[in-house]
Amino acid sequence: MKEILKTERLLLRELTPDDAENFYKLNLNPNVIKYTGNSAFKDIDEAKGFLENYQDYKLNGFGRWAVIEKSNNEFLGWCGLKYDKNLDETDIGFRFFEEHWNKGFAPESAQACIDYAFENLNLKTIIGRAMSENIASIKVLEKIGLSFEKEFDFDEKNKGVIYKIQK
């Protein structure tokens, strides 16, 4: 388990197959995945298979990271960077258990990821994508310094927005 960074309250580390149960439970809540375009895993084994085959760390040197509360070692959700080879861009993303919403964990971890991307990974630009209706995530993107770039079609039914920050 590779530790990536720490903030005042949080530890961010690589996800492992041992996170499968938390990963599964996180996506079970319809409120958590409402704006993601993702569906729930059918069971813990499917979540474990996803994690066992997660190649971003090896391919890009970074990825989505588990967010752990330092005081009690609780798995709160994930936050991190994702490189899209087809678009040649890196996005910041985050997903937390609903009981941990509105406690500042998303901006705290996402800001740390942005800083890490610019200082340690020498990335020049990071984008954030959200469905237009996802006001909470848009507020996090704005809070960590991203600015509105453009609208796009998130999927057949939903409009989305792209926010951007440059080093």
UniProtKB/TrEMBL annotation:
It comes from the Bacteria. It holds the Pfam family Acetyltransf_3. One of its GO terms (molecular function) is acyltransferase activity, transferring groups other than amino-acyl groups. Residues 10-167 form the N-acetyltransferase domain. The keyword NADP does not apply. The keyword Aminoacyl-tRNA synthetase does not apply. InterPro entries: Acyl_CoA_acyltransferase, GNAT_dom, N-acetyltransferase. Keywords: Transferase. This is RimJ/RimL family protein N-acetyltransferase. The lineage of its organism: Bacteria, Pseudomonadati, Bacteroidota, Flavobacteriia, Flavobacteriales.
